[in-house]
Amino acid sequence: MQELIKNLLVELGEDPNREGLLNTPKRVAKAYEFLTSGYRADIDQVLNNALFTVDYSEMVIVKDIDFYSLCEHHLLPFFGKCHVAYIPSNKVIGLSKIPRLVDVFARRLQVQERLTNQIADTIRDTIKPLGVAVVIEATHLCMAMRGVEKQNSFAVTSAMVGAFRDQGRTRMEFLELIKLRSIVPGLQHHQAGLACIGED
Questions:
Q1: Which of the residues 2, 74, 113, 196 is marked catalytic?
Q2: Which of 11, 75, 159, 167 has its CA at 20 to 30 Å from residue 18's CA atom?
């Protein structure tokens, strides 16, 4: 990887042997290894010893989970907040494991829509809850730094499964609790994977 980065610097018109760039290939390679560490993570191992049988059937919400990912189209960062909710049937996930799960999928080359669905699908398949809801709001540097150059735009995606998809009251309770209902009116139509762009 370091040799590829060195060649990239040359293609960009730089001299990889100048003082400021001598260690850049090593630093960039190390950074990319970290930012794509999700490929090497084992979901079962991440959730190991963190599934518990509990007599609880109310909504569980972990909101404002910070995440950072790389857009697979331009290798530029997108980042923001992830909100996750589920209604247990008979098992729950240790609360600290949900942000870890978000990190596993975020630390890959991604698109926001797929990231949203992967988190929801994994929780659904792991504990078979009555419903799962995931909402992600993110800023994309491929929009802010290049292309349309809209620095104040953000993207919101959602995945609604089970009770969150079928029951409007449950869905709206979740959106009210994460305070997104007013800026995501389209979510009232409970379309999984819905994406909308907003500007301040």
A1: 74
A2: 75
